[in-house]
TrEMBL record:
Keyword Iron-sulfur: no
Stored Pfam families: CBS, MgtE_N, PRC, SH3_actinomycetes
Cellular component, GO annotation: membrane
Record keywords: CBS domain
The organism's place on the tree of life at top rank: Bacteria
InterPro entries per the UniProt record, alphabetical: CBS_dom, CBS_dom_sf, Mg_transptr_MgtE_intracell_dom, MgtE_N_sf, MgtE_transporter, PRC-brl_dom, PRC_barrel-like_sf, SH3_actinomycetes
Lineage start: Bacteria, Bacillati, Actinomycetota, Actinomycetes, Geodermatophilales
Residues covered by the CBS domain: 350-407
Protein's UniProt name: Mg/Co/Ni transporter MgtE (Contains CBS domain)
Chain ranges passing through the membrane: none
Length: 412
């Protein structure tokens, strides 16, 4: 196996890290460098490595014995598991250098940093030696790409505002929303704002749902009010209601007014319930069918990619109207039963008529209900016999865990 003496940081991101025995330790999440006041290349201090329970730790570069194609190898399996905290004078290459606006020294043309290479010197130290920068494109085309030495680029040692985030977001593309949320919390506040601004509404909505409430409020407060309303529309109604419940009445009502009426209405309904009841935990958008729907139609509905696995395990049959609150609730059908029946069979012929939850059912009873019937989702029906939503097991767990469980998980 060939050991590399130069590696591009975008390729290092997500690369597995192994100890000398070949046991996997974690994966690379970023590279920490120390910028210098002159034109000398920044010294590489170490790697940010994500280990078990999404804990991010610092591994000094002196502990790295090899950067092989597809893997980083350490000199020892003994690690300091203290959570990584960025210090003054330290810069994260992925988190802070990518997307920075610079100028090419020779031509004085503007460009943007899209990648950076670290290189091992003859003394064994590692430095950030080269940059890949791209000039602005014209008419929708990409500009010219340059591979330059560190001292051939101007503008990285000065404080900068208005930094983009496209390249950094590209490194997040394959991560799920929970992992992006963890990465976002490890960025400086200014950079966090830039990334949140650059994410599209749907992606940002998914990421917000995985953040602690205090972080959700901070990021939402950074956005223009109209953009914040758009993001809330993309969130699941129960997540949007939980977030809005933490805001002042004035801010909550203003954002609800900015949302589209048909998107705001289910959120308003959920805000009526106490958060520790079935009504406060439920989503108002489960899979709802009318009695004349066939099993083929039901299976097509549960294949929709936006459904969570829990909500896709069953469908609810109700008299029209089919939007919550519906007409009279008739029962539910489990996907296992649907898969065993002919596709042309009516869903109303395979219903389970178990007693549904009420909106006012407290958390303790909801938990016992799920445990008794071995469920991953359950219907919530009001006193008039109308389906108003469904509680999924992930919502129950979210309320059973301590309020700061996401932050505790990040800290390990």
């Amino acid at each position: 196996m060939t050991t590399a003496t130069r590696a591009y940081v975008s390729r290092l991101a997500g690369m597995p890290v192994f100890d000398p025995n070949g046991d996997r330790v974690g994966k690379v999440r970023d590279v920490v460098v120390a910028l210098r006041v002159d034109s000398a290349p920044p010294r590489v201090l170490g790697l940010v490595v994500e280990v078990a329970a999404r804990r991010r730790i610092f591994v000094p570069m002196g502990r790295v014995t090899a950067v092989d194609p597809g893997a980083v190898v350490l000199a020892s399996g003994t690690l300091n598991l203290k959570r990584f905290e960025q210090r003054a004078g330290e810069t994260l290459v992925l988190g802070e250098l990518l997307d920075r606006s610079v100028r090419i020294a020779e031509s004085d043309r503007p460009a943007q940093v899209v990648d950076a290479a670290i290189e091992q010197t003859r003394t064994g130290d590692w430095v950030l030696s080269r940059l890949a920068v791209q000039e602005p494109g014209r008419l929708g085309r990409r500009g010219q790409l340059h591979q330059l030495n560190w001292d051939e680029v101007v503008g990285l040692t000065l404080p900068q505002s208005g930094q983009g985030a496209e390249t950094l977001i590209a490194t997040y593309r394959e991560l799920n929303a929970a992992d992006v949320a963890h990465a976002l919390q490890d960025l400086p506040l200014k950079r966090r704002h830039e990334v949140a601004e650059a994410l599209d509404d749907e992606r940002l909505a998914d990421v917000l749902g995985e953040l602690p409430e205090t972080e959700q409020i901070t990021i939402l407060g950074m956005l223009e009010e109209s953009r914040a309303a758009d993001v809330l529309e993309e969130m699941d109604p129960d997540d949007a209601a939980d977030l809005l419940a933490e805001l002042s009445n004035v801010d909550r009502n203003r954002l609800l007014e900015l949302m589209e009426p048909d998107e705001a209405e289910p959120v308003r309904q959920l805000l009526q319930y106490s958060e520790d009841t079935a009504g406060g935990m439920m989503t108002s958008e489960p899979v709802i069918l009318t009695p004349d729907a066939t099993i083929a139609e039901a299976l097509a509905r549960v294949r929709q990619p936006e459904l969570t696995p829990a909500l896709a395990t069953q469908v609810y049959v109700c008299r029209p109207p089919s939007a919550t609150p519906t007409g009279r609730y008739l029962g539910l059908a489990h996907i296992q039963r649907l898969l065993r029946e002919p596709p042309s069979t009516l869903v109303s012929g395979v219903l389970d008529d178990m007693e549904p939850l009420r909106p006012e059912t407290p958390l303790g009873e909801v938990t016992r209900y799920f445990a008794t019937y071995n469920l991953v989702a359950a219907p919530v029906v009001d006193a008039q016999g109308r389906l108003v939503g469904a509680v999924s097991v992930d919502d129950v767990l979210d309320h059973l865990l301590p309020e700061d469980w996401r932050e505790r998980s990040r800290r390990g």
